[in-house]
Design a protein that fits this description.
Shape: rod-shaped
Strand content: under 5%
Number of helices: 1
């Protein structure tokens, strides 16, 4: 009788452990996905900022090149 009780207890322990491991695995996967999503969002934001800066720099360079150079007056 004791062997059957021990076997049942071990079986229950294994089932509980498997359930706990599955739960921990799901939590870890959720954390990983959240981390990847955060990195992707930051990448998009930084890319937009970089492109805006590059456009502003190009516009400033074009405006500087289009302005005629100032001449000094001769006295």
């Amino acid at each position: 009788m004791s062997d059957e009780t021990d076997a049942r207890t071990r079986s229950e322990e294994r089932a509980e452990r498997a359930e706990r491991m599955a739960k921990e695995g799901a939590e870890a996967m959720a954390e990983h996905i959240a981390s990847v999503k955060a990195v992707d969002e930051r990448t998009v934001k930084l890319r937009a900022l970089r492109l805006a800066k590059e456009a502003a720099d190009a516009e400033a360079k074009a405006a500087a090149a289009a302005a005629p150079p100032k001449r000094k007056r001769s006295s």
